[in-house]
Amino acid sequence: QHPSFHLAVHYKYPSLYLHASTTRRACNSGQLDRGRNQATPARARLPVGRALYYHTMVQLLVTVATAVLLLVAGATAQRQGCENATFPAGRSFERCNTLPVLGASLHWTYHAANGTAELAFRATSGSAGWVAWGINPSGAGMPGSNVFVASQGGRGAVSVLTTILRSTAPALDNTTLQFDVPVPPTAEYAAGAYTIYTTVALPGNSTQQNTVWQAGPLSGGDILPHPTSGPNLQSLMRLDFLSG
């Protein structure tokens, strides 16, 4: 720049010149707007081991939360699947479960005062078939189960057999069960399904019971063995009659 211009500016606008000079020096020295250009301190980092621990815990919590949601959703779906069921003669039940196999559902009302459960077991079946539901007081599985078996005779009349399955090839004789049955069982066949009605005194006065159910074919009104594979081997469940 020309020296005379420099002096003129300084003479006429001394404050402007001072500011410009100061700004230029600040820029040259890297000190302009120190607050804006100041280096940000490095963020503290977690040790690798602790970071891995936190990451693992988060994954575990997500997994547990997902499992809980799936269980709740499954239980809700089971209730919704059986809550739409209707029964004749104004019958109704407080709880129900859609059972996982054989197109079956269980409906019941638990009476804590006397330890009984008023129930209805419903399962889809052809007219040339039979269905059964029961409780095993001695353990899980079919052998030892006390069951109610519904079937149709030659003329279409529906009857209920009460028997104890003492082996995997039981003699289906009409037998008194090992727990009280205050209301004798009855059954009906309608809309492609059997429904067994009864009231049972829960063994040991316990709400938690090993329950079983089954379905198989008929021949001339006689009960034939059920299939021994697939869903017919999965039809058992530990059930709490108080909570469902």
UniProtKB/TrEMBL annotation:
InterPro entries: AIR12_DOMON (IPR045265), DOMON_domain (IPR005018). The chain crosses the membrane at residues 52-75. CDD domains: DOMON_CIL1_like. Keywords: Membrane, Signal, Transmembrane, Transmembrane helix, Transport. Its main location: membrane. It comes from the Eukaryota. It is found in: Membrane. Residues 102-216 form the DOMON domain. This is DOMON domain-containing protein. One of its GO terms (cellular component) is membrane.
